[in-house]
Amino acid sequence: MCAGAPSDTDDRATRDFLAARPQLFGIAYRVLGSSAEAEDVVQDAWLRWQNTDRTTVREPAAFLTAVATRLAINVAQSARVRRESYVGPWLPEPVDTSHDPQLGAERAEAVEMAVLLLLERLNPVERAAYVLREAFDYPYSRIADILETSDANGRQLVSRARRHLAAERKESVSPTAHRRLLEVFLSAARTGDMAVLEDVLTADVVSYADGGGIRGASKIPVVGRAHVSRYLAAFAPRFWPQADVRWVEANGQPAVLVESGGEEVALLCLDVSSQGIERIMWVMNPAKLAPYVASLTAA
């Protein structure tokens, strides 16, 4: 019996970790905007769990959530320095939510590309507080415990994050309306139809192209209806004639995967409000595209 006890304990520890793993990844991904970095956080949490005196842990899921959240905050703090030297606009790494619709969350909040992009502008602790509250519906007392702060400060962190997102992002539309506008936009972009583009873009629309310095993507965001329309029209003859498109889902919303010469070259995502297209996001960095395409194949 003694010989079997460690194995039984290890089996229980593994089961507890695997049960919590989807949520750990969901939190880390939302805080970091990178599935690769989120996977690293989950692996680090596993190593810490193995080296923990688990006889002192009454709630494994709560313990693991706290560990993963704090690890994600630490990674986010160091990632901010790395992203300051990133070549061109930085966009979150897309994920295939059709394969994992909730990404471990009780609610599919804070997973859209545009929301992750805006969360990146918050400090990591504010980001974590918002994710725990809005995506996982944690009570403020638990958020305070995880972030090692007071209940009042936990509420302030969430409130500041909410105000930031409300100021930067208008209310989104239904998936059907989102797809319809993406279809219109795609058709106009492929033909360089300036009139249609100007009709569907908002006045302060921003186009981001994340090539990471590897592809010939614009190294600065293009801002404003007139500038974005002209940019897309000029871009059309060089890019679209050799391209094929595939409808996919990314981060809970319709998206378009662009292929050229048998290679995936871009993932097109939009942020859409009732007023039109607010943000155009082109993920072109192969390091971000490859894991996403692989997940489509695996699904």
What is the 3D shape? globular
**Alpha-carbon distance between the two ends:** 42 Å
Low-confidence stretches: 1-5
How are the strands of the biggest sheet laid out side by side? 2-1-6-5-4-3
Global mean pLDDT: 92
Strand composition percent: 15-25%
SS element count, helices: 11
Tell me the layout of helices and strands.
Blueprint: H1 5-32, H2 35-50, H3 60-84, H4 113-119, H5 124-135, H6 140-147, H7 151-168, H8 175-191, H9 194-200, E1 201-210, E2 222-223, H10 225-239, E3 243-250, E4 253-260, E5 263-273, E6 276-283, H11 286-298
Parallel strand pairs: 1-6
Antiparallel strand pairs: 1-2, 3-4, 4-5, 5-6
Helix pairs in contact: 1-2, 1-3, 1-5, 2-3, 5-7, 6-7, 8-9
Polypeptide structure, described:
- It is a single chain.
- This protein has helices at 5-32, 35-50, 60-84, 113-119, 124-135, 140-147, 151-168, 175-191, 194-200, 225-239, 286-298; strands at residues 201-210, 222-223, 243-250, 253-260, 263-273, 276-283.
- The protein is α+β, with helices and mostly antiparallel strands.
- Strands 2-1-6-5-4-3 form a six-stranded mixed sheet, with helices on both faces.
- A hairpin with a 2-residue loop joins β4 and β5 (263-273).
- The protein is globular.
- It starts with a helix and ends with a helix.
- Residues 1-5 have low confidence and may be disordered.
